[in-house]
Automatic annotation (TrEMBL):
<feature type="transmembrane region" description="Helical">
    <location>
        <begin position="165"/>
        <end position="184"/>
    </location>
</feature>
<feature type="transmembrane region" description="Helical">
    <location>
        <begin position="93"/>
        <end position="111"/>
    </location>
</feature>
<keyword id="KW-1133">Transmembrane helix</keyword>
<feature type="domain" description="Integral membrane bound transporter">
    <location>
        <begin position="55"/>
        <end position="174"/>
    </location>
</feature>
<dbReference type="Pfam" id="PF13515">
    <property type="entry name" value="FUSC_2"/>
</dbReference>
<feature type="transmembrane region" description="Helical">
    <location>
        <begin position="41"/>
        <end position="62"/>
    </location>
</feature>
<dbReference type="GO" id="GO:0016020">
    <property type="term" value="C:membrane"/>
</dbReference>
<protein>
    <submittedName>
        <fullName>Uncharacterized membrane protein YgaE (UPF0421/DUF939 family)</fullName>
    </submittedName>
</protein>
<keyword id="KW-0472">Membrane</keyword>
<dbReference type="InterPro" id="IPR049453">
    <property type="entry name" value="Memb_transporter_dom"/>
</dbReference>
<keyword id="KW-0812">Transmembrane</keyword>
<feature type="transmembrane region" description="Helical">
    <location>
        <begin position="117"/>
        <end position="134"/>
    </location>
</feature>
Length: 384
C-alpha cells in the first residue's frame, strides 16, 4: 500500500505544479491574443468601413442591385498591411476581370454544373498565370469564376461585376490614405528593442567570461541566435512604415525619419551576425576552459555601452555623438592590444573590431569612415 500512496502523493504534487503553470500559460496566451487584436483594431475598422462605403456607392450611386464584388475587392485590397496595397488593388481588379469574363462566357454557352465549374476554375487560373499574375491575382480569378458559375450565373453581367470590383479598389485606395501613426512609430521602437537586446547579450557574455560561468554564456548564445526573429520584425515594421509615408499624404512629412530607420536594417543585420559569432566563440572558450585576456569582458561592456547609446539616439539624436565617441575609442583601443594566444581569443578580438564598424555605420558614419576609426593592426589580424 505504501508504494501506491507514494505514487498518489507524487501525482498530487505534479498536479499542483502543473496547474499554476497551465494557468500562467493560458493568461499569457489570452494577453497575446488581446494585444494582437488591439494592434489590428484600426485595420479591422478600416476594412469594415471600406466594405460598407463601396457597397453603398455601387448600389445607390451606380445603381447595381447586388454589388457583391465591391466590398470583397475593398477588403482584399486593403488587407492587414500597408505594404503592396497598390499591387493588391491591381491584382484584384485584373483577377476579377479574368474570372468574371471566363465564368460568364461558359455560363452563357454551357450553363452550370460540376464539369463546367472544374473547367472554368482551371481555365481562369491558367489565363491569370499566362498574364503574369501573382498568387493573389490567380486565386482571385479562380474564386470569381467559381462564384459567377455557381452563385451568380447571370450572363452579360460581367462588366457590371468588374466595375463593382474597380469601385471597391478605388474606395480601398482612398481609405488607405488614412494611416495610423503607430505604423510610423513602431519601426523606431522595434529598432530600439533590437539594439537593447544586443547590448544585454554583450553584457551577459562579458559576465560569463569574467566568472567563467557556462550557464551565462550558453544563455547569451541562445539569445543571440533568437535575435534574428527580432530583426525580421524590424524589417517588416520598416517596410510597412515606408509604405505608409509613401501612400498617405497625411504622413509624408515623416518620410525622412522613417527611411532613416529602414536604412538601419542592413548594417544592423551585419552587426547581429557578427555578435552571434562573437558570443558563440566566447561560449566555446568557457566550455573548453580556454583562458581569455582579462581585458575582453571590459571590451564587450564598452561595446554594449555604444549599442545602448545608438538605441537612445533613435529618440534623442544627440546621443549619436556619444555613441560615435565610445565606439571610436573602442576601435582605437583594439588596435593597440597585443595579439592574443588561442583561436577563440583571436576570433573574439576580430569580431569586436568588425562589430564596432557595423555599429559606427548605425550612427550615420560611412563604411570607409568607420574603417578609418578602427585603425589597421600591425600583427596580421584580419580586417573587415
Amino acid at each position: 500500500m505504501d508504494p501506491v500512496r507514494l505514487t498518489l502523493d507524487q501525482l498530487r504534487e505534479l498536479r499542483d505544479d502543473i496547474a499554476p503553470q497551465a494557468a500562467r500559460r493560458s493568461r499569457a496566451s489570452v494577453r497575446r491574443r488581446v494585444d494582437r487584436l488591439r494592434e489590428r483594431v484600426f485595420f479591422i475598422a478600416q476594412c469594415a468601413l471600406a466594405a460598407g462605403v463601396s457597397w453603398a456607392l455601387a448600389h445607390y450611386v451606380v445603381g447595381h442591385p447586388t454589388p457583391f464584388f465591391a466590398p470583397v475587392a475593398a477588403m482584399v485590397a486593403l488587407g492587414f498591411s500597408f505594404g503592396q496595397r497598390l499591387r493588391r488593388v491591381a491584382e484584384v481588379m485584373v483577377g476579377v476581370a479574368v474570372g468574371v469574363g471566363v465564368g460568364d462566357l461558359f455560363v452563357r454557352f454551357f450553363g452550370t454544373g460540376v464539369p463546367q465549374i472544374i473547367f472554368v476554375v482551371a481555365l481562369a487560373m491558367s489565363v491569370a498565370v499566362l498574364l503574369g499574375a501573382g498568387t493573389l491575382m490567380t486565386t482571385q480569378a479562380g474564386v470569381q469564376a467559381a462564384i459567377v458559375t455557381t452563385l451568380l450565373p447571370n450572363p452579360g453581367a460581367g462588366f457590371s461585376r468588374w466595375l463593382d470590383a474597380a469601385l471597391g479598389g478605388v474606395v480601398a485606395l482612398a481609405a488607405a490614405t488614412i494611416a495610423p501613426a503607430a505604423a510610423i512609430r513602431r519601426p523606431r521602437q522595434q529598432a530600439s528593442d533590437v539594439l537593447h537586446e544586443l547590448a544585454a547579450i554583450l553584457v551577459e557574455t562579458a559576465d560569463g567570461l569574467r566568472t567563467e560561468n557556462a550557464d551565462d554564456v550558453t544563455d547569451a548564445l541562445r539569445r543571440a541566435r533568437s535575435s534574428e526573429s527580432m530583426l525580421d520584425d524590424l524589417r517588416s515594421a520598416a517596410s510597412e512604415g515606408v509604405a505608409v509615408v509613401r501612400l498617405s499624404p497625411f504622413r509624408r512629412r515623416h518620410r525622412g525619419r522613417v527611411q532613416q530607420i529602414a536604412d538601419l536594417v542592413v548594417p544592423l543585420d551585419r552587426a547581429i551576425r557578427n555578435i552571434r559569432v562573437l558570443v558563440r566563440r566566447c561560449a566555446v572558450s568557457v566550455w573548453r576552459d580556454e583562458r581569455m585576456p582579462d581585458e575582453y569582458p571590459m571590451l564587450l561592456e564598452r561595446l554594449a555601452d555604444g549599442t545602448r547609446l545608438i538605441a537612445e539616439s533613435l529618440f534623442e539624436p544627440a546621443a549619436d555623438v556619444a555613441a560615435h565617441r565610445v565606439l571610436g575609442e573602442l576601435g582605437r583601443r583594439t588596435a593597440k592590444l597585443p595579439l592574443p594566444h588561442g583561436l577563440s581569443a583571436v576570433v573574439v578580438l576580430g569580431q569586436i573590431r568588425s562589430t564596432v564598424i557595423d555599429l559606427l555605420e548605425l550612427t550615420g558614419t560611412s563604411y570607409d569612415e568607420a574603417r578609418k576609426l578602427v585603425p589597421l593592426r600591425l600583427d596580421g589580424l584580419d580586417e573587415k
